[in-house]
Amino acid sequence: MKEQLEQIQKEALEKIAAAETMNELQEIRIAYLGKKGSLTAVLKGMGKLSKEERPIVGEAANNVRQSITASLEEKTAQLEEKMMEKQLEEESIDVTLPGRPVRVGGPHLLTSIVEEIEDLFIGMGYEVKEGPEVETDYFNFEALNLPKNHPARDMQDSFYITNEILLRTHTSPMQARTMLEYKGVKPVKMICPGKVYRRDTDDATHSHQFTQIEGLYVDKNVRMSDLKGTLSIFAKKMFGEDREIRLRPSYFPFTEPSVEMDISCKVCHGKGCNVCKGTGWIEILGAGMVHPKVLSMAGYDPEVYSGFAFGMGPERIAMLKYGIDDIRRFYTNDIRFLKQFHHA
């Protein structure tokens, strides 16, 4: 049995010396020192030995176990050192290489456009209002002269949550809310920027969620000429001093009369090109004089007060100002697109 132990020791030490991975060492440990290992199997046969032979064989078995264990520990330390050296080599850093530049972010293009428009109208005495994106049917439609079953509701296919709650289709509800807040006695001069939602198929010029800025001015003796002058200042500040505007008759339930505003094409300067479809003009926003019914429902006497309202889309303004051909570019988070406008 003593010769058998010596043979086990020799084989184990040879295999340990030849091992190249931690997994191989673990397999050797189990094969020789485990519960079903070679050394354990030999020790189970000690019961057949005489009383004189047992201490001798037991001591020899302990020496073999200690030898194998010591060899395993030494080899483990060697392999761990090699692994560490390899890892350090692979993860080494050349400190002489130039550092990677840290890119500094900037405002989103739409944020910049909205802030630019806000600054313009604040300079003209307007205040900025914000309202809920989840709105009641009353403020979204009825308070704006769009009673239930009104055919013009089909112009704004809506996301309803309940029969009376929906995602707002425009920021116009803040016009009604603000007039009610002022209780029909205080002049109103406000704009309301924010997100709006409509059931629309996303394509190059449409989105189910987009941004809108509504404006409202209510006071005594407000006239259509005041609206035209305000919109002319807006067009020149946003698109250049050489821009001209024109107002075309249109229809909106909450204004009467209603108009569409066009600006002269910056490419052809009104001569006609493919950008303006040969007309020399580009549609930019809708506006009009506040409907007397809207004033009455908000507590203002239409015999005393009058006003104008307008609504514009910052996406459309940005597309025209910077020559962007697809509204979806604003929402796809493509850094190559966005970083072009950090200066904006």
Automatic annotation (TrEMBL):
<feature type="domain" description="Aminoacyl-transfer RNA synthetases class-II family profile">
    <location>
        <begin position="109"/>
        <end position="320"/>
    </location>
</feature>
<dbReference type="GO" id="GO:0000287">
    <property type="term" value="F:magnesium ion binding"/>
</dbReference>
<dbReference type="InterPro" id="IPR045864">
    <property type="entry name" value="aa-tRNA-synth_II/BPL/LPL"/>
</dbReference>
<feature type="binding site">
    <location>
        <position position="256"/>
    </location>
    <ligand>
        <name>Mg(2+)</name>
    </ligand>
</feature>
<dbReference type="GO" id="GO:0005524">
    <property type="term" value="F:ATP binding"/>
</dbReference>
<comment type="similarity">
    <text>Belongs to the class-II aminoacyl-tRNA synthetase family. Phe-tRNA synthetase alpha subunit type 1 subfamily.</text>
</comment>
<dbReference type="InterPro" id="IPR006195">
    <property type="entry name" value="aa-tRNA-synth_II"/>
</dbReference>
<dbReference type="InterPro" id="IPR022911">
    <property type="entry name" value="Phe_tRNA_ligase_alpha1_bac"/>
</dbReference>
<comment type="subunit">
    <text>Tetramer of two alpha and two beta subunits.</text>
</comment>
<keyword id="KW-0547">Nucleotide-binding</keyword>
<keyword id="KW-0479">Metal-binding</keyword>
<keyword id="KW-0963">Cytoplasm</keyword>
<dbReference type="InterPro" id="IPR004188">
    <property type="entry name" value="Phe-tRNA_ligase_II_N"/>
</dbReference>
<dbReference type="GO" id="GO:0005737">
    <property type="term" value="C:cytoplasm"/>
</dbReference>
<dbReference type="GO" id="GO:0016740">
    <property type="term" value="F:transferase activity"/>
</dbReference>
<keyword id="KW-0436">Ligase</keyword>
<dbReference type="GO" id="GO:0004826">
    <property type="term" value="F:phenylalanine-tRNA ligase activity"/>
</dbReference>
<dbReference type="InterPro" id="IPR004529">
    <property type="entry name" value="Phe-tRNA-synth_IIc_asu"/>
</dbReference>
<dbReference type="InterPro" id="IPR010978">
    <property type="entry name" value="tRNA-bd_arm"/>
</dbReference>
<keyword id="KW-0067">ATP-binding</keyword>
<dbReference type="Pfam" id="PF01409">
    <property type="entry name" value="tRNA-synt_2d"/>
</dbReference>
<dbReference type="Pfam" id="PF02912">
    <property type="entry name" value="Phe_tRNA-synt_N"/>
</dbReference>
<keyword id="KW-0460">Magnesium</keyword>
<dbReference type="InterPro" id="IPR002319">
    <property type="entry name" value="Phenylalanyl-tRNA_Synthase"/>
</dbReference>
<dbReference type="GO" id="GO:0140096">
    <property type="term" value="F:catalytic activity, acting on a protein"/>
</dbReference>
<protein>
    <recommendedName>
        <fullName>Phenylalanine--tRNA ligase alpha subunit</fullName>
        <ecNumber>6.1.1.20</ecNumber>
    </recommendedName>
</protein>
<keyword id="KW-0648">Protein biosynthesis</keyword>
<dbReference type="GO" id="GO:0000049">
    <property type="term" value="F:tRNA binding"/>
</dbReference>
<keyword id="KW-0030">Aminoacyl-tRNA synthetase</keyword>
<dbReference type="GO" id="GO:0006432">
    <property type="term" value="P:phenylalanyl-tRNA aminoacylation"/>
</dbReference>
